[in-house]
Amino acid sequence: EEVPSQTFDNKDYFCGKETFPVYESIFTEEGETIRKIAVETEKPPQIEIHVWTIRKGILRHFYVEKVSKREFEELPYFKQITRTTPSQWKIFSEGEAQISQMCESRVCRTELEDLVKVLYLEKSEKGHC
């Protein structure tokens, strides 16, 4: 029996909650990994991109940039990884601020991975919203 595929836009999948698409881009150059997590917001209509530069597991540089949707569409490497709610994004942003201070002097690979997992919503069982 085939399981019906879920699309990211299916409101039932997220119990009708407001969600934003989340994108990720990871590439490595000269021994550094540049990892970008982006969220698309409606008010204002823009893309907020969180950029992490990681060298040997240590977060060397972190910043946030905001671009228009049109500018974002022209950027390479991004793929949609999930959708998230405003409250989950807030948890992500606050955790990111703590990690950026914590990880300036030590390896934080697992902390960064766990932080990204915050953005993934639990699939709700039908009738349990």
UniProtKB/TrEMBL annotation:
<keyword id="KW-0732">Signal</keyword>
<keyword id="KW-0964">Secreted</keyword>
<feature type="domain" description="Chordin-like protein 1/2 C-terminal">
    <location>
        <begin position="10"/>
        <end position="129"/>
    </location>
</feature>
<dbReference type="GO" id="GO:0030514">
    <property type="term" value="P:negative regulation of BMP signaling pathway"/>
</dbReference>
<keyword id="KW-0325">Glycoprotein</keyword>
<dbReference type="InterPro" id="IPR045716">
    <property type="entry name" value="CHRDL_1/2_C"/>
</dbReference>
<dbReference type="GO" id="GO:0005615">
    <property type="term" value="C:extracellular space"/>
</dbReference>
<dbReference type="InterPro" id="IPR045717">
    <property type="entry name" value="CHRDL1/2"/>
</dbReference>
<dbReference type="GO" id="GO:0036122">
    <property type="term" value="F:BMP binding"/>
</dbReference>
<keyword id="KW-0677">Repeat</keyword>
<dbReference type="Pfam" id="PF19548">
    <property type="entry name" value="CHRDL_1_2_C"/>
</dbReference>
<dbReference type="GO" id="GO:0030154">
    <property type="term" value="P:cell differentiation"/>
</dbReference>
<protein>
    <submittedName>
        <fullName>CRDL1 protein</fullName>
    </submittedName>
</protein>
<keyword id="KW-0217">Developmental protein</keyword>
